Amino acid sequence: MATPRVFPLSCVAQQYAWGKKGSTSEVACLLASNDPLAQIAEDKPYAELWMGTHPRGDAKILDNRIAQETLGQWIAENQDCLGSKVKDTFQGKLPFLFKVLSVETALSIQAHPNKDLAEKLHLQAPQHYPDANHKPEMAIALTPFQGLCGFRPVEEIVTFLKKVPEFQFLIGDEAATQLRQSTSSDTQAAASALRSCFSNLMRSEKKVVVEQLNLLVKRISQQVSAGNSVEDICGELLLQLHRQYPGDIGCFAIYFLNLLTLQPGEAMFLEANVPHAYLKGDCVECMACSDNTVRAGLTPKFIDVPTLCEMLNYTPSPSQDRLFPPTQSPGDPYLFIYDPPVPDFTVMKMEVPGSVSEYKVLAVDSASILLVVRGLVTASTPAAQAPIPLQRGAVLFIGANENVSLELTAPQDLLLFRACCLL
After folding, report:
1. Measured between alpha carbons, how far is residue 256 from residues 148, 199, 220, 344 in Å?
2. Averaged confidence pLDDT in the chain
3. Which of 49, 67, 158, 364 has its CA 20 to 30 A from that of 211?
């Protein structure tokens, strides 16, 4: 009997302090929907659901016809399932990790190195940078999802310098003047000025940061108590971050970075050297296989301010430019493709109306992982002995070039996400 190349997976839920608690978390809800035996602790933060191969969270195979317990073990013995190009390009490994994230507390001011910098950091400090790979990421919102991404236009930052004297104090007069004299149209001058301003902020003495932040929090709190709007200085967000991370320099980063609220289906792509932070909400995330993150605030983890300030892309851009829209497949009205400019991964979203009885999943020359977010189907393949029932939270591994047909078994709309590698 041939070894199955399409099979369900049991994935790994990670409990980090920044996650949403219990059934408020999309991670916990997907986990409970797919596993009736899962006991969701309402006081525990369910932060991430990992779908793929990783030393700290390798998915388990739910098919008693397959001897290997984990997906990583199975792929090592069945290299052809990856697809010929993927196998050769990524040395016989699945090149991406697919996740669901549920964020309640802000998740660090950070950026990810390119491959050259990753190799250098790994050699210098392997305890903090555990591999030599880059880590581009894409986040696609499942619920309204708030995050920071990339540097704001210069004009917006200059406005904050005028309205937030505590921010201006930490930047310093010389750097602030340099920024005012630059414009977003002169990207080189703007980037140079932004580098000076951001570096001054992030290298500020801790005592001074706490003093200025306390002054700002007091002023905003008084305005809120008086019933005045503080929207023009992101006052509510500043108070929220200060409650989560009292006295943290990262609270001031909101005046440098674009604030985005993604609606379901909207995405942002986080290429190398782009500063970002996740603030709140649920998303599907896909990333290259790496644990390299350079952090500088809003985190209890290791902070590396010099590396972050040196590596960042300081080119300013408006918030709408940070959105990464998908393209609709010309041959499939229900398929939307998020294809970033990196070789490691592509994400597909499938929204199939409940009136459709059968949906054929596009065959691609890559191993892929399929997540059911909404709907009830059975999956079948030409070689399968029996259909595989899938419901909300189900995860399916699909080998390269496999034809999979989904039969909708309930008259409700179907929402699927799929990670693959389109070389």
Report:
1. 9, 11, 18, 29
2. 96
3. 158
CB-based burial of residue 331 (10 Å sphere; 0-12 exposed, 13-18 middle, 19+ buried)? exposed
- Tell me the CA distances in angstroms from 103 to 27, 108, 135, 203, one per residue in order: 10, 11, 20, 28
Q: Is the pLDDT of residue 313 over 90?
A: yes
Angle between helices 154-163 and 187-202 (to 10 degrees): 40
Distances, alpha carbon 41 to alpha carbons 24, 35, 44, in Å: 11, 14, 5
Whole-angstrom distance, CA of residue 30 vs CA of residue 237 = 29
Q: Which two tokens stand for residue 224?
A: 């809120």
Per-residue pLDDT tens for 30-50?
A: 999 988 778 899 999 999 999
Task: Take residue 58 and report the two structure tokens written for it.
Answer: 């390798």
CA 148 to chain centroid: 11
Measured distance CA(150)–CA(206) in Å, rounded:
24
pLDDT tens digits along 266-292 = 999 999 999 999 999 999 999 999 999
Rama region for 393: left / alpha / beta (φ>0; ψ in -120 to 50; rest): left
Identify the DSSP state of 105: S
- C-alpha angle 199-195-240 in degrees, rounded to nearest 5: 60
Q: What is the pTM of this model?
A: 0.96
Pairwise CA distance, residues 224 & 97, whole Å? 42
| 392 tagged catalytic | no
Q: Assess contact for 280 and 236: CB atoms under 8 A.
A: no
Model confidence over 121-165: pLDDT tens digits? 999 999 999 999 999 999 999 999 999 999 999 999 999 999 999
The C-alpha angle with vertex 72 and arms to 342 and 273, in degrees rounded to 5, equals 25
Say which of 5, 152, 295, 322 is annotated catalytic.
Answer: 295
Q: What is the pLDDT of residue 184?
A: 66
CA distance 282 to 47: 9
> With b meaning 16 or more CB within 10 Å and e meaning fewer, what string describes 390-403?
bebbbbbbbbbebe
From residue 29, give the alpha-carbon distance in Å to each of 39, 52, 167, 286, 394: 11, 19, 40, 19, 11
DSSP conformation class of 4: P
The bridge status of strand 145-151 relative to strand 257-262 is antiparallel
